[in-house]
Amino acid sequence: MVYAIVRAGGRQEKVEVGTVVVLDRIKADDNGNIQLAPVLLVDGENITHDASALAKVVVTAEVLGDERGKKIVIQKFKNKTGYKKRQGHRQELTRVKITGIK
Question: What is this protein's function per UniProt (predicted)?
Fold first, then answer.
């Protein structure tokens, strides 16, 4: 079993070939593909975490589409002062399918 831990959008995700992952918004190239930076590679019983060895590893993914996350509501309140603030946010996301780990 081959899988990799990749850095994407300030987080780390465990991916295998064929895995569909939702990441922070990433701009794709003209073909709709992206490359992700691996942090760790597991190939059977071999574990690679050396930076110079990981520089040769390429994790490619195909962009399936852009979407927006669930709405979150931010509320601030201070007692006895009449201060109330309400704000909403929806994160911009990209759904990708991992096509290769080489």
Answer: This protein binds to 23S rRNA in the presence of protein L20.
